[in-house]
Structure formats: structure tokens, C-alpha cells
Design a protein that fits this description.
Layout lengths: L7 E3 L2 H8 L14 E4 L7 H7 L7 E7 L4 E2 L2 E2 H9 L4 E7 L12 H14 L3 E6 L1 H14 L2 E6 L11 E6 L2 E6 L5 E4 L1 H4 L4 H11 L2 H14 L7 H6 L4 H5 L2 H4 L4 H21 L8 H16 L6 H25 L12 H8 L7 H19 L1 H9 L1 H11 L3 H10 L15 H10 L9 H7 L5 H15 L1
Parallel strand pairs: 2-11, 3-6, 3-7, 7-8, 8-11
Antiparallel strand pairs: 1-2, 4-5, 9-10
Helix pairs in contact: 4-5, 7-12, 7-14, 8-18, 13-14, 13-20, 14-19, 14-21, 14-22, 15-16
The structure holds zinc ion.
């Protein structure tokens, strides 16, 4: 019997104590996730999980899922969840189907509001959400709105957003990280996650590998004074188990259960770290901006986009290339930090007009970008100081980053896409260029794309060279 045959109930005491004793403890939020229950058979322990959550026997449980069949050993995961619960509880199922115009369920305003109402009408004592990224994002909002105890049964190791208090929602067509609520318990059963489509597991590696460029962006934002929340403790902790995961990328690529469980564990840690940071910055930088723009473009067209993590993986290679070029430029010295490149309202609205002719999407982006643009105008001296003191920052950033070929090799070993044309489906080349060119206009966080723009190192020529380098790495 291997360890994976055992169900482990982790009440996260060890992690809580480690964070409490860290130098950055005062700036970190508490972990309100009570347990991570993992291992083969974890799903069957749902009644004891609900018992520990003080849900009385005979209570009403709403199980929330989408309409996509998902395997659990040789049965459907939803049937397995119902079977585990319906001897002890009154179980009711809410299944969410994609809108006719969309390929998959979107976490947009109307879908979220409708699901909240459907669950509210059932007045359950507890919500059990069964699914992957988008469904769990919706489940966290429902649990928050209705103040419900919330158990998440994770069905794929596809993203790092399960174990935190944020949901990525589509607000006026814009991907927005929105505060929601920690789940009370996260259930990770290899009987489900190792049977998810292999592309979802490979996507999970792509989402996880964003931690390198994202942490560098987070540090930069702190260094210039835009967001001073950077935590060295969290930046270090998020990569604690990464070497072990790297040793298993080949096995991950064909879905070997132990490797998938290892990935799920890394993704959970990544989620917990975003949760205690109170922001997604530890694992969301330039690579996520590029991915979000690709997704928003596809959503606006009503066509499917490649999975979140697969896009983030490719964009993480891109972000590593961008970071190397920007560092090289700054290390040469004599860099001009100019405010002339800061976008105007008209420019932002024009960039996003093709996605929403009515302009609400562009206005949503401008409302976030405007704050950053104003901050830049008032802090040019701070930005110039960081540029002039670059070698001291470069040393820290160099330790946070990994080279593009390291990230590409990890993705290749797991048979995950490395370049945009390997995505399924591949986004059109002009949309890829658009997402790289305008990623920094999406939100009010400062990162490498903003710095590249301000030092005049983000012109069409630069973008072409980055994409050429990406293509060469993928050969
Ligand atoms: Zn992500």
C-alpha cells in the first residue's frame, strides 16, 4: 500500500504555524480553509467531512456541478459524490449548462446570479461543488453570497485557484479577480483528478509554472512602490515542492496518479499562498495578462479558447523572454523612463472596442488602468530611481525567475504546449500579438510589461522578436 492509498486530513496547522512565525506574518491573512482531504478514497469520506463541519445528518445538501461528464474510477464523479452522500443527507443537484452562444460555462454576471438564485431556492445547509476552475470560482461566490458551508471536490489538477478566497469572474467581458470566499474543505481524490482529461493536467503545470514570472512582477511592483505587499516568505514558500514536481514532469505528461497528486498538492499550496497574500499576485503576472486577453477575445467572439493553464504555460515562456530582455536593457544603464507611453482613455477604449462595440468592456479596463496611469504620472521619480539602482533589484529578480528554456523544457517534458500555435485551439497570430501588446492595459497592477512600455522596450519590433524567440524554443 502506498501513501496514496491513504486518505490524509490536513488541517493546515503546520502551514499556519510556519506563516505565523515568519518575518512577514503581520501582513498575511489567515487561512480560513479548514481542511484539505486528499488521497485515494477521499471522496467516499464526504459524510465524515460534513460531520466534522457540524452538518447534521438528514440536512439538505446542494451539489453544484456543470454538465460535462467526469470520471471517478469507472463511474461518473457526480454519481460517486451523490452515492457517498445520499444515504445520510437529502441531496439535491444543480447542474449548470453553458449558454447556447458559449462553448463552456462562463463565470459571467448573469450565470453567477442565476446559479446563486437556483441554490438560494433550495435553501441548503451546505454546498458541495464538484468541478474544476470555473465551477469552483462560481461555487465560492455562491457560498459567499448565501453564507453556506462549502466543500469543494476538485475534479482536475488544472489550475491553482481552488484553495483561496478569490474567484476569476467575467465582469463586463473582462477577466477580474474578485474576492469571494475560502472553501471550508478541499477534497482531492486521485480517483478523479488522475482520470481528468490529460490536457487538463498539463494545463495545471502551465498555471503552476507562472509562479516565476509572477513573483518577479510582484517584487517589481513593490520595488517601485505601486503595491508594497511583496512577501519574500510567500515567494519562497510557493516554490517549496517545485523541484519534486520537476522530477515528475514526464510522468505528469501521461497522467501517472502519483505525479498528478504531486501537481495537485503544489497547486493547493499556490492557492493557499494567494489566499494569505490576499491577492493573486504571487502567481499572476504578465503571463496571466496575456492569457486573460486571449480568453476575453475568444469569449467576445463566442468561440472556444485554449484552457487557462495551457495559455498561461505558453505565456510564462513569453514572460521569461520579456523579463530577460528588460533586465538586459536596464543592466546596460542610461534608460529613459518616459510618461509619453502611458495610454490615454481614448487609446484604451480603442484597443478593446473590437471585443465590445458598446464600450462597456473598454470602460471597465480603463477604470482599472486609469489608476495605474495616474500613479505612474505622479511617481516618475520613483520609477527612474529603480531604473538607476537596477543592479540591486536585478539580483533579487534573477533569483525569482527561471530562464525561458527551463520553463519550455518542463512544459515539453509534460507534453504541454510551448508556443501559441501548439494550443488547442490555437489563437490567430494577430490576436496573440494584440494580447502581448496590450496586456498591461487590463488591470491596475504594475509589472514587467508596464516597465517595458515605460522604457520604450515594447514596440512592434520587440514583440516580433519575443515571438520569434518563442517559436525557436518550441522547435
Ligand atoms: Zn491561473
Amino acid at each position: 500500500m502506498s501513501d496514496l492509498d491513504l486518505v490524509t486530513v490536513d488541517d493546515l496547522t503546520e502551514l499556519r504555524e510556519l506563516l505565523l512565525s515568519s518575518p512577514d506574518a503581520s501582513s498575511l491573512l489567515t487561512i480560513d480553509l479548514r481542511e484539505v482531504v486528499s488521497g485515494d478514497g477521499a471522496l467516499a469520506t464526504l459524510p465524515s467531512i460534513l460531520d466534522r463541519l457540524a452538518i447534521d445528518k438528514g440536512s439538505s445538501i446542494t451539489v453544484l456541478s456543470d454538465t460535462t461528464p467526469k470520471r471517478y474510477h469507472d463511474m461518473d464523479v457526480l454519481d460517486a459524490v451523490i452515492e457517498a452522500l445520499d444515504q445520510t443527507y437529502r441531496v439535491d443537484v444543480v447542474r449548470v449548462a453553458p449558454e447556447p452562444s458559449a462553448a463552456t460555462v462562463l463565470a459571467d454576471e448573469s450565470t453567477v446570479a442565476e446559479v446563486v438564485e437556483r441554490v438560494r431556492r433550495r435553501a441548503p445547509n451546505c454546498l458541495v461543488c464538484v468541478g474544476s476552475g470555473t465551477m469552483v470560482d462560481i461555487g465560492k461566490v455562491v457560498a459567499n453570497e448565501l453564507s453556506l458551508t462549502h466543500v469543494v471536490v476538485q475534479t482536475a489538477a488544472s489550475v491553482n485557484g481552488y484553495a483561496d478566497a478569490h474567484s476569476v469572474l467575467l465582469v463586463k467581458g473582462v477577466k477580474r479577480t474578485t474576492p469571494s470566499r475560502w472553501p471550508d474543505v478541499l477534497v482531492i481524490d486521485p480517483g478523479a483528478i488522475a482520470r481528468a482529461p490529460i490536457a487538463m493536467t498539463r494545463s495545471g503545470l502551465g498555471d503552476q509554472i507562472s509562479m516565476f514570472s509572477a513573483a518577479a512582477d510582484w517584487y517589481l511592483s513593490d520595488a517601485v512602490g505601486f503595491d508594497t505587499s511583496y512577501s519574500p516568505t510567500l515567494a519562497s514558500l510557493i516554490r517549496r515542492d517545485f523541484d519534486e514536481l520537476m522530477a515528475a514532469t514526464g510522468a505528469l505528461g501521461w497522467g501517472e496518479p502519483e505525479a498528478v497528486s504531486r501537481l495537485a498538492s503544489c497547486l493547493t499550496l499556490g492557492g493557499l499562498i494567494m489566499g494569505v497574500a490576499g491577492r493573486t499576485a504571487p502567481s499572476s503576472g504578465a503571463e496571466h495578462l496575456i492569457s486573460h486577453l486571449l480568453e476575453m477575445h475568444a469569449d467576445a467572439e463566442g468561440i472556444p479558447s485554449a484552457s487557462h493553464g495551457s495559455q498561461v504555460g505558453v505565456a510564462s515562456v513569453v514572460a521569461a523572454i520579456i523579463w530577460r530582455r528588460v533586465r538586459e536593457r536596464l543592466c546596460l544603464g542610461n534608460v529613459q523612463v518616459g510618461a509619453t507611453n502611458v495610454a490615454t482613455r481614448e487609446h484604451v477604449l480603442n484597443v478593446f472596442a473590437p471585443l465590445d462595440a458598446a464600450g462597456a468592456l473598454g470602460q471597465e479596463c480603463w477604470s482599472a488602468y486609469e489608476r495605474k496611469a495616474t500613479w505612474i504620472q505622479h511617481h516618475l521619480d520613483d520609477l527612474r530611481r529603480v531604473a538607476s539602482e537596477w543592479p540591486q533589484h536585478d539580483e533579487v529578480i534573477g533569483q525569482l525567475l527561471r530562464p525561458a528554456n527551463f520553463i519550455a523544457t518542463a512544459l515539453r517534458d509534460a507534453q504541454a504546449p510551448i508556443s501559441f500555435d501548439q494550443l488547442s485551439p490555437p489563437p490567430p497570430a494577430n490576436v496573440v500579438s494584440w494580447s502581448l501588446t496590450y496586456g498591461h492595459l487590463l488591470r491596475d497592477r504594475f509589472g514587467v510589461l508596464d516597465l517595458a512600455v515605460l522604457i520604450g522596450a515594447w514596440n512592434p519590433q520587440d514583440i516580433n522578436e519575443v515571438l520569434d524567440e518563442l517559436r525557436e524554443l518550441a522547435l
